[in-house]
Specification:
Blueprint: H1 3-13, H2 20-26, H3 32-49, E1 53-58, E2 61-66, H4 71-77, H5 87-99, E3 102-103, H6 104-111, H7 116-124, E4 128-133, E5 141-145, H8 147-152, H9 164-170, H10 189-192
Antiparallel strand pairs: 1-2, 3-5, 4-5
Helix pairs in contact: 1-3, 5-7
Length: 201
């Protein structure tokens, strides 16, 4: 029985991504380098196989995921786990993701509205977590994103978040949609001076 087969079965059966450290704890009869080599072998195997799923590094661990181009087919059979976000929740989550660690007061300053209910909802969905207390008067709680946040958005780590430049590029008009205004010939004076015709029946 090969090490790659053992690791493959463990990742397949896991409810959440398995980290390298966790695999090393579970497979103490193997060296860390052997486990890393087996993971790399598995990743190459599934890429070359080009099947319906692949081995991805997500949220600090390894997990089998269906390929993005199979999405339309997968949802015919399985209703994907959906996390619905209100605009306020998305805005709050984005602020926390990019500005963490951040306090409630800092989030509310940036949003301009009370965020208590939204923060509670995000905590309940385990998309954010309490990191501790800020060392200032009142010692307010500080918030950051969770491993579940990385898993849901398919991120290896926070470095995978799009940059501000990439986000701004989404609002730019694609080159092929850009078109200069067509020059219009001047309206002759004898036409411009005529009153509009009555088109009513």
């Amino acid at each position: 029985m090969s090490l790659s087969s053992i690791i493959e079965s463990m990742i397949f059966a896991a409810d959440s991504p398995l980290s390298l450290d966790r695999l090393c704890d579970l497979l103490q009869e193997y060296t860390r380098d052997d486990i890393k080599a087996a993971l790399a072998e598995l990743q190459v195997f599934h890429e070359e196989r080009a099947g319906g799923f692949h081995l991805a590094e997500v949220a600090g661990g390894w997990q089998f995921r269906t390929r993005a181009d199979m999405h339309d087919y997968v949802i015919r059979h399985v209703k994907a786990r959906a996390v619905k976000f209100s605009p306020s929740a998305l805005e709050t989550l984005a602020i926390i993701a990019y500005r963490q660690p951040v306090t409630r007061a800092e989030v509310e300053y940036l949003r301009g509205v009370d965020c208590g209910g939204v923060l509670k909802a995000l905590l309940e969905k385990k998309l954010i977590r309490i990191l501790g207390k800020k060392d200032i008067p009142g010692r307010p709680l500080i918030y950051g994103t969770s491993k579940e946040f990385l898993e849901i958005f398919g991120l290896k780590d926070l470095k995978g978040l799009p940059t501000l430049k990439e986000i701004q590029a989404l609002d730019e008009t694609p080159h092929y949609e850009q078109q200069e205004e067509l020059p219009l010939a001047p309206v002759p004076d004898h036409i411009a001076s005529q009153p509009p015709s009555d088109q009513s029946a």
